Amino acid sequence: MTKPARTPARALTEAAWQLPLLLWLVAVWMLLWGTFSIANAVNGLILAILVTRLFPLPPVPHVGRLHPWGATVLMGRFLWDLIPATLQVAAHALRPGPPVRSAVIAVQMRSPDDLPLTLTAEMVSLTPGSAIVEMDREARVLYVHVLGLSDRADADAVRDDIRALEDRVLRAVARNPPPRPARAGHPPLAAEEI
Amino acid sequence: MSAGGIADAVGAAALLGGALLSLLASIGLLRFPDVLSRMHAATKPQVLGLLLVLLGVGLRLRSSIDVGTLLVVAVFQMLTTPVAAHMVGRAAYRTGNVSGDALAFDELTDGLAGDGPGDPSARMR
What was the ipTM of the complex prediction? Predict the structure, then answer.
């Protein structure tokens, strides 16, 4: 991936992505103190700027755009999906008989960007019953450990679920989100397309 | 019943639900066969379980500043749990603590060997 030229517009975009981080740090500071006051806010802001200057995060290349509706769908669907997933892991824990078996499957992601890849990996790991054990950043492949998966025939359904999750992530944060119906076969997208 | 009474009742139910999920997690921790499966039990029911506990506490306390602090707890837990799980899984994998017995199939080893089919679409690039 070539590094994009640092134009004023891009610098502004990156600054705009830093702003929520600053506000977030200030909010955390005030919540930890437990009082909302001007003094707290000013102190928080000074600390937030200090922290982000002293420990700068690597820039996220190809930053996208937040789509409020896409983000709402993503979060709502994620919380909803937690319930059956939790019940399933609980069922595995309680079911008598031989120990549950699992599998590690490879899932090809479509997006070439780091942000959707990271978000998708986070959410896969947060969902009970699936966890990332390894990822190939170059090839955009997640290796997912799936509890209770013992048949290769069932693996494709899990893969489709994770790709559908990636699509929802893309509709929440990508610059040009993919259209609602997922494309057949999920071809990896070129950088320009996202 | 007053609104406060309803909130208390829902909060109590949420606390109980969260505690139950934590109990199920510890049963899973005992019963699952290998590191990776146990990691699911150790890290996951906490996601919904913790959210329920926090919801329960929030409904009992009902002050905006406390609810804000609870939100911070939830967000940090959701941000850090996957990282911890990933590091445990990765370490288990690399130190050979992933037994072939508990795994039905493993496309990562197939992929690392370089000759396994793995996911056909994973080889597209």
Answer: 0.73
- A72-108 burial, b at 16+ Cβ within 10 Å, e below that, comes to eebeeebeeebeebbbebbebbeeeeeebbbbbbbbb
Asked if the Cβ–Cβ distance from B37 to A147 is below 8 Å, we say yes
Continuous segment of H or E residues that includes residue A173:
helix A152-173
Contacts of B31 in chain A (CB under 8 A): 93, 99
Count up the domains in chain B and report the number: 1
Record: contact A86-B44, CB cut-off 8 A: yes
Residue B41 contacts residue A89 (beta carbons within 8 Å): yes
- Residues of A within 8 A of B116 (CB-CB) are none
Helices (H), chain B: 3-31, 35-43, 45-61, 64-94, 107-113
Distance from CA of B31 to the nearest CA of A (A): 6
* pLDDT digit string, tens, across residues A132-176: 888 888 888 888 888 888 777 788 888 888 999 999 988 888 777
pTM for the whole structure: 0.73
Task: Quote the domain boundaries for residue B42.
Answer: 3-124
